[in-house]
Structures are given as structure tokens and as C-alpha cells.
Amino acid sequence: TLMHNPHVFPNNPDQWSERMQVHVIPGLVVTGTSSGTANGIHQTLSTSYGGDGRLYMTFPFTIDGL
């Protein structure tokens, strides 16, 4: 998740907030490992199956104050 706002986050010159590495293990079990600083952004991993039987992943997030 990227948030480019040097006025709000002047101590984060790379302007990244959180990185999530996604792992798919046997049986189509999906896990995610986050690293970095939340920096006001909170991200999660959500999986679901579509009507066609495919596994879909989404990465919902919230931003503090919004």
C-alpha cells in the first residue's frame, strides 16, 4: 500500500506504508505477512470463491481519519 503525502508523513521518504507478502499453500490456503509501518493505513487480506469456482483475493484497507 502506497501513500504519497510528504506533508503528512515527512519521516517516510520512501512513501511506502505496508508491504504484504502473499503465500498460497497446498489446498489453496492463502496467508499474508505484513511488514513496514502502518503509517495510518491498515490493510488486510480477504479471500472468496466466485460463482465460477475460482479463488479471488482482495486487499481491503482503511486510512485513519477517512
In short:
The chain is mainly beta and 66 residues long. The protein has strands at residues 18-25, 29-36, 41-43, 46-49, 55-58, 61-63.
Structural overview:
This protein is mainly beta. Helix content is 0%, strand content 45%. The protein contains no helices and 6 strands. The strands form 3 sheets. A two-stranded antiparallel ribbon has the order 1-2. A two-stranded antiparallel sheet has the order 3-6. The protein is elongated. The two termini are 16 Å apart.
Secondary-structure blueprint:
Blueprint: E1 18-25, E2 29-36, E3 41-43, E4 46-49, E5 55-58, E6 61-63
Antiparallel strand pairs: 1-2, 3-6, 4-5
Keywords for this entry:
single chain; 66 residues; mainly beta; two-stranded antiparallel ribbon
